[in-house]
Design goal:
Elements: H1 20-25, H2 27-38, E1 41-46, E2 49-54, H3 57-66, E3 71-72, H4 79-82, H5 91-101, H6 107-111, H7 114-134, E4 138-139, H8 140-157, H9 163-185, H10 197-222, H11 230-236, H12 248-279, H13 281-294, H14 309-321, E5 328-332, E6 336-338, E7 341-343, E8 348-351, H15 353-356, H16 376-379, H17 400-417, E9 418-422, E10 429-432, E11 436-439, E12 443-448
Helix pairs in contact: 7-8, 7-17, 8-9, 8-12, 9-10, 10-12, 12-14, 12-17
The protein binds protoporphyrin IX containing FE (HEM).
Length: 450
């Protein structure tokens, strides 16, 4: 027996905005409390709109795997920047693109990018050696953003860009995406064609990016086979069935998409890990012992990573507590049943990995940082959809192996050279913006590195 949508429980909220004000002011705490109070499917009235928060792993399985085609994405604010890239597209177009791009994200191809990750981490650590010598504290998230930004720019374009260009492009990407993310949260936006300073800077950045990206695409199409990077893969990919290749516009959309999806998430997670380790001495010691016995001070290679299980558990537990994609939404194409309720076509469903990762039926002491939860014996038998930092099903993150390898390489490089400690007086809390980052800032001091 199913119940109608009107029977789904939820808070009443205020007359005009519903619960919109509470969702905006403290969404994480609010959503966790809703799940505890009302259960696994909660109705959220947001003024004119209604959203259904689905948190039970069975529901996530239904939405992302069993009936995934019935749940589509709608992200209109990102259209101009991302176009029809993998994150924002749907249907046949998405399927074709995913098929074309999947091989580039295969384990073996990703492993070939390890050298770039090591080189960029070396550059960052050389800066940190300076901070260690002078005893100067620094904001670690900024460092991580710069690192992951340079890694994605270089794995995308390899040596086609000079260092100066790579920095300019990285910054332009970043500023454009921050601007777009900010727009989603602003109530009163000047129209995009007004010459406000924000609009002008946005236009300038987007122009620079498009000019650079189209130039590089053009060069590559004329001289193929000289590089082994993501751009080469996008330019040469051919659909196995139709033999078709991507148009320059489509390649541009995918370049922007990979940049958007591929650096802030990883930078935030690396910053969270350092913050958590600075407050959990036991985990830090265990991690150092693992690195010492397997690596003995040298940089890791992809072949070492399976031999560093505790390192992976620390990453997994950090992604459980602070999944960068803390909320995402889908719109129903046709009606569907979630739990005991019948939802109509057109309904918006929200999934929150942050809330599901704290579901008391699957996670004892959900707020505590405990990497041991991911020991194989502990993890065995756990509902597969209770842990979804990269989502699941056909639309699972295509870059999950990339991100995991990047973190597994960077982390031992940092910890084998430095002791990282938090600077007192700078409390850190989760900041639910476009991604869930630690904030407002993460100030650290480093020792060692000689
Ligand atoms: C810790 C790091 C990362 C996390 C937690 C993460 C998480 C996610 C999640 C939850 C989705 C699904 C979004 C949705 O369906 O609405 C997603 C999609 C995606 N991610 Fe990631 N991601 C990470 C890193 C990366 C990296 C490094 C790349 C690329 C190099 C990447 C590329 C993508 C792309 C292209 C999609 C769209 C896939 C599709 O719909 O077919 N991500 N990611």
């Amino acid at each position: 027996m199913t119940a109608p949508v009107s029977a789904i429980p939820g808070p009443r909220g205020l007359p005009v905005v519903g619960v919109g004000n509470r969702l905006l002011s403290d969404p994480l705490e609010f959503m966790v409390r809703l799940q505890r109070h009302y259960g696994d499917l909660v109705k959220l009235s947001l003024g004119k709109h209604t959203m259904y928060l689905a948190t039970h792993p069975d529901m996530l399985k239904r939405i992302t795997q069993e009936n995934w085609k019935n749940y589509i994405k709608r992200y209109p604010t990102m259209d101009e920047i991302l176009g029809q890239g993998l994150v924002t597209s749907n249907g046949e177009h998405w399927l074709r693109q995913r098929r074309l791009m999947q091989p580039a994200f295969h384990h073996q191809r990703i492993a070939r990018m390890a050298d770039v990750m090591v080189e960029e981490a070396e550059r960052m650590l050389a800066r940190w050696a300076g901070y260690a010598r002078s005893g100067r504290p620094f904001e670690v998230q900024e460092e991580m953003m710069l690192l992951t930004q340079q890694i994605i720019v270089r794995t995308m374009f390899s040596s086609s860009l000079s260092d100066t260009e790579a920095h300019a492009v990285g910054k332009a990407f970043n500023d454009t995406l921050n601007w777009a993310a900010g727009q989603q949260f602003r109530l009163l936006q000047p129209p995009r064609n007004w010459p406000t300073p924000g609009n002008l800077a946005y236009r300038r950045n987007l122009d620079l990016l498009e000019r650079t990206v189209y130039r590089l695409i053009d060069e590559r199409r004329q001289r193929q086979g000289e590089h082994d990077d993501l751009l080469e893969m996008l330019v040469t990919a051919r659909d196995a069935e139709s033999g078709e290749q991507m148009s320059p516009q489509q390649i541009r959309d995918e370049v922007m998409t990979i940049f958007l999806a591929g650096h802030e998430t990883t930078a935030g997670t690396l910053s969270w890990i350092l913050h958590l380790l600075a407050h959990h001495g036991d985990a830090e010691r265990k991690l150092r012992a693992e690195y010492a016995s397997v690596l003995g001070g040298r940089n890791p290679t992809p072949a070492d990573l399976p031999k560093l299980p505790y390192s992976r558990m620390v990453i997994d537990e950090t992604l459980r507590l602070y999944p960068p994609t803390w909320i995402l939404t889908r719109v129903l194409v046709g009606p569907d049943t979630l739990g005991e309720y019948e939802l109509p076509a057109g309904a918006t469903v929200a999934i929150s990995p942050y809330v599901t990762h704290r579901h008391p039926a699957f996670w004892p002491n959900p707020e505590s940082f405990d990497p041991e939860r991911f020991r194989p014996e502990e993890a065995e038998g756990r509902h597969k959809f209770a842990y979804v930092p990269f989502l699941a099903g056909p639309r699972q993150c295509i870059g999950n192996n990339f991100a995991l390898m990047e973190m597994q390489i960077v982390l031992p490089m940092i910890l084998q050279r430095f002791h990282v400690s938090a600077v007192p007086g700078y409390p850190v809390r989760p900041m639910p913006k476009a991604t869930l980052r630690p904030g407002p800032q993460v100030w650290v001091e480093v020792r060692g590195g000689g």
